[in-house]
Amino acid sequence: MTERKPAKGNQRTIFICQGTGCVSGKSLVITGALEKNIAELKLKDVKVDFTGCHGFCEQGPVAIVDPDGIFYTHVTIDDVPEIVASHLRDNKPVERLFYKDPVTGNAIPYYKDIKFYSMQQRIILRNCGRINPERIEDYMAKGGFESLKKVLKTMTPEQVIDIIKKSGLRGRGGAGFSTGQKWEFCHNSRADQKYMICNADEGDPGAFMDRSTMEGDPCTVIEGMTIAAFAIGASEGYIYIRAEYPLAVKRVRLALKQAEGKGFLGDDILGSHFNFHVHVKEGAGAFVCGEETALMASIEGKRGMPRSRPPYPAVSGLWGKPSNINNVKTMATVPVIIQRGAEWYASTGTEKSKGTCVFALTGKIANSGLIEVPMGIKLREIIYEIGGGIPGGKKFKAVQTGGPSGGCLPEAYLDQPVDYESLTAGGSMMGSGGMVVMDEDTCMVDVARYFLSFTQAESCGKCVPCRVGTKQMLDVLERICAGEGRPEDTAFLQKLSEQIKAGSLCALGQTAPNPVLTTLRYFMDEYKAHIEEKRCPAMVCAALVRYYILPDKCMACGICARACPVEAIKGEKRMVHVIDQDKCIKCGTCQEVCPEKFGAVTKVSGEELDVPNEPTPVKERPKAEKSA
Amino acid sequence: MIPLATDNLVEADVREKLDKIFAGYKGRQEELIPILQEAQGAFRYLPAAALREIARFLQITENTVYGVATFYAQFKLTPLGRTVIRVCRGTACHVRGSSKVLAEIEKQLGIKAGETTPDLEYTLETVACIGACALAPTMTIDGETYGKMTAKKVAEVLGDRTKAG
User: What is the ipTM of this complex?
Assistant: First the structure.
């Protein structure tokens, strides 16, 4: 997948990733250091440039050297002098910074040989990590805006809609409605003004694909939007971006300005008499604004509360005018379909779900990052081959897709194909693309409680079943986690879930019970352990765990007693330390600080250990165990 | 009802700052959220006096402005601390133990999430996701990200700042 043109002479460019993940890893400082080092060594043929997200965030900060295609991982400021002197000056790449295959331990210098990349198929993310997102010329050099030219010069809106329909593209925002049909509805509405809106209010916790797309390749989103606007007949457009994404806002604004400068936006675009102006609207921190009618209310300057549909936005949307809303990833796909054709796109994926999907793969997984895979791939392939499996030899428990609207799928689903239909059949959903892997140390009741606390806080309050129902469910889940669950609780949660689903106006309420329903369906044993045995099998729920100091392992070093925030540990020199269970707040600090060679602190759930209540003398042990 | 801060800002100062902001707008309701965002940038929170002036400028009721200001999590009606700490409570951070990190910070600062220390030094907030999931659990201090946090690292990170600051 690395196609790089041979450079003239020794011309080299080192591209540093400046996506949010790598910036968090100090990649801006590294860029500065590279520039300084290169200037000091007076290297004339070397340039420093930057890209958006490569997706392989686990390995960040990452850098790539063109035209060699050498991929560096975990770059720190201390590595800079070596990269500059050894690779950029002496042509000897720094092998120590290559990606290391976790299984073979081999150092791999190229993208295409790394399993994380080789199993992906990048359409939406095709330019992310490959171009400087702040230079429109880079996008154009990759064929950018050619699709817009083709559309404006050779096609009618009906022809555009026809191609998108034939391609089978479905909305990447979650629900998966046919994009072509959506456009057609809006196209068929008659009005003096229509609006084209891009939904970039990516609010699902654990999801960052829209942000990375905007940060890494903002122009493709703009090109897709402009093509959509032409198809539906809109002259005004909005991109609604989450305020928590300052870098994405900055890059999209810059790209809009550059696109206007090149005549791809504005009046009479490319001499076609088609006008399209795009405005950026920053969200203000309300998850529900990802819902289309709430999003439009927010653009209008109101509280972002959903309204009932119909009328659908295609008939009456923003300011009562026909409007079309598409997700960032949907927009990024459109130019490729126009360029390569509906048949080409439809050849990837499953019968009903065409093309590729992007996931933010996170949680208990070796390779956290952003991946793009063909629809129909198996969960097992994503988690174990691309994701590199679960770190620390832990056992897989569940995978959560679709964020707070989705569900947790157990091991039995690992061999199911990933597409809209099969995820929904499992009780989860595609959602916008968060994929969080959970291992044996994750408590599924706690996960359900976590998601409910999120949706309960984010419920806008309009529909009573959602506003009051999620609060009731959260109260019950908190009670179960606190060890005060009652036998009737699971049946009550089930019933309430169904009522909330049926009685809520928008997707937030309709899907909020999904995390509870799926955990009840697949992990009932964990609910039962909490309720009947007052035991948390994953030992997560603080009220259900106890910490003990093992008398035969404690060396009376006193570290735990000093670290305990509530002075719950008794002990003195040469005396086995003891935790006062009444004072203990289960913070786990003692276990964290107990020296590994002793490992004297243990955590249990659902049982009590028979250890002395008062400090007892440390037993003499053979000298071989060197004590500190 | 979320109470407004009783502030001792001089009305003339509020008006002067707001007039500068209003200069960039036409006075339509759709501009309410961007104006609130700019006003919060100028005052670090939204003083009651500013909400009233904004209502007047847009010719909408104070009630509407208050309604919008309290709907969105971004808007603060009480002053923020000089240092703002945000602990990520995204799913990836949650399964990697962010609740312990949050509890530890709450303990060290003596405030709960959403609160500000009485000396206005620290504000502690949670954020749904900052999207740096590979570094989970994460937190930010004045926008700077700290990754792979543990309860133990909290003291280090906070301690560094008190020394440095």
Answer: 0.90
